[in-house]
Amino acid sequence: NEMDDGNKSRTYKLLQSLDTRRFSGATDPGDTLSCQAGSMDLLVGPLPDFLGRKIRSIGKKEGGETNAKEKEEAMDDFWKVAKQSYEQTASYLKWGDAIEAVRLFDLGMNVCDIGRLVDSYATSSASK
Q1: Residue 121: CA atoms inside 13 Å, Cβ hemisphere, count?
Q2: 20 to 30 Å CA-CA from 42: which of 5, 11, 17, 79?
């Protein structure tokens, strides 16, 4: 928010797309169409406001001078996000139930018509 003073830190929820084919356990030689895509939520932070702007501006200061401490802090925060994302993804994979998640999603798509179910819930008064 442009009106904020930029002194807040926030935790962000990101949706990460996953190629879950490697977890499907399918023995199909490729004769069947199958999406096998998935996603997971990542929670990263807390991160200071305007971090992206800070990172993009590194090296673009007037006269080409960069505040070394500011650069180091911004890059530390950037790598903090990368490390948190890696750890959360690795934890999901170590959990060992990725194949079950793929099967559950497939069941929802084929048996329950999950798209219609989600749309129905989204428009119902129960979700308001």
Answers
A1: 5
A2: 5
